[in-house]
Amino acid sequence: MPVSQPLSLILVASLLTAPALAADPPHSACLSKAEQRAAVADRKAIPLGQAIKSRRARGHYAELVRARLCRRGGGLVYVLTLLGHSGKVTRETVDAANGEPINGH
I need a labelling partner for 61 at 20 to 30 A (CA). Which of 5, 50, 53, 75 fits? Predict the structure, then answer.
């Protein structure tokens, strides 16, 4: 049974995005905008701009596509989705308390 071209494109697109979505933290683990502001005000997290500046100081130059502040373990992390100069989309996890990359990223 032949598969229509639009259905084929949808299947291919879903297969390509599945690994990226699997790495996403659950939505419930991430903070709302108000919770993010409170975490920064309470010094539980550094401001996002400071975390990005810390990355760039280590030579990581990529365009920020998305940033979320999420709970992990007993602390907070920034989950950054980045677009590199090559066009490759990557995800990095940064300790929100100090801006240090987690897992060597």
Answer: 75
